[in-house]
C-alpha cells in the first residue's frame, strides 16, 4: 500500500486549519441550511462481537487514492479510532465525526480501552468501562464498538477487524515506553490524522471540578447527597452549610438592593414626569391668569364697561339747550290735610313764589 503523499496531508491539514472549532469546513462563515428531516439513528452502534464478518472474502486493504475516489457500497473504507473516552464530551464527538468523514464511503470502528488497561497506562477514570462503552455506542458517527481495545495496535488486531486506516490526531502520543504508539501505523501508511478540539478535554473538565471543589461539594450537599458519599469530613460539612446560609443572606441583601434601586429609579422617573407636567400646567395657569388679570386683561375691559354703564345709569345725559322748549303745564296744587299752615318750602320754591299760601307739588316734565 502506498502511503499518502505529504502534499495531500498538508492540503488536508490546511483545510482543517481553516475550518471551525468542530473540524468541519465552513463556507463563507455561514453553514448551509438543510431541510427539516431526521438525521439521527434509532439504535446504538453494535459491539464488534455482535457483528458477523464474512471471512470467505479475502482481506485486501484499499489504498489512500482508492479510498478518496470512493469505494463500492458493499466495500466501505474501514476506519478505526481508539481512545479512553472518559466523560464523553463534544471534543470526542467531533474527532469521531472527522474520522467518519475522512472518505466518501466510511465504516467507523471505535475501540474503547478497559478500566484495567487504562488505570495501568494512563490513570484513574471517572466513568467505568461499561459507562464509557455505552457513551460511545450512542454517538451518531459510530458504526461499531470494540470493547477492551488494545493499547498498542498489532498486525493481528488490524487483520482481525479488517482495518484500512487508523484515525487519530497527529500529535505524538507517548505511552507504554514508546515515544509514539502510532509510529508503526504512520510508517505503514495507514494513519489518517484528525484535528484536536482545543479548549475541551477530559483533563480540562476534571481540572474545573478540582478547582471548584468546594462549590460542587456544597451543591451536591444541597441536592441531598450525604457527606460520606462526597467523602467530606464533619467539619467541612458544617462549614459548607454555614457558607450556604451566608450566601443566601448575601443573595437576599443583593435582591433587596436591586429592588430598592429599581424603586428609586421608578420614583425618579415619576418625579421627572410630575415636574414636566407641573411646568406645563404652570405655564398654562400663568398665561390664563395674565390673560384675565393682566394690564390689558379681560377683567380690565369688563371693569371699564361696567363703570361706563354705572355712570350712564347714575347721571343720564341732559337735553341739549338748542332743543325747543315745551310749555310747562301748571302743576296741580296739593294742600296738606288737617293743616292750616303752609309747610315750609324749599328755597327754590320760596324764590318762585314767596307769597304763596298753599304748597304746590309739581311733577317734572319728562324729556
Automatic annotation (TrEMBL):
Disordered: annotated segments:
1-42, 313-367
For the keyword Repeat, the answer is: no
Which catalytic reaction applies to this protein?
Answer: phosphocholine + CTP + H(+) = CDP-choline + diphosphate
CDD domains registered for this protein in UniProt: CCT (cd02174)
Q: Where is the composition biased (Polar residues)?
A: 315-324, 340-356
Q: What is its EC number?
A: 2.7.7.15
**Molecular function via GO:** choline-phosphate cytidylyltransferase activity; phosphatidylcholine binding
Q: Which residues form a coiled coil?
A: 239-266
Q: Which residues form the Cytidyltransferase-like domain?
A: 80-208
Q: What spans are recorded as compositionally biased (Low complexity)?
A: 330-339
Tell me if Lipid metabolism is a UniProt keyword of this record. yes
- Which keywords does this chain's UniProt record carry? Coiled coil, Lipid biosynthesis, Lipid metabolism, Nucleotidyltransferase, Phospholipid biosynthesis, Phospholipid metabolism, Transferase
GO CC annotations, alphabetized: endoplasmic reticulum
Matching Pfam families, A to Z?
A: CTP_transf_like
So, what pathway does this thing act in? Phospholipid metabolism; phosphatidylcholine biosynthesis; phosphatidylcholine from phosphocholine: step 1/2; Lipid metabolism
Q: What does this protein do?
A: Catalyzes the key rate-limiting step in the CDP-choline pathway for phosphatidylcholine biosynthesis.
The similarity annotation says:
Belongs to the cytidylyltransferase family.
In Swiss-Prot or TrEMBL terms, this protein is called choline-phosphate cytidylyltransferase
* Lineage summary: Eukaryota, Metazoa, Chordata, Craniata, Vertebrata
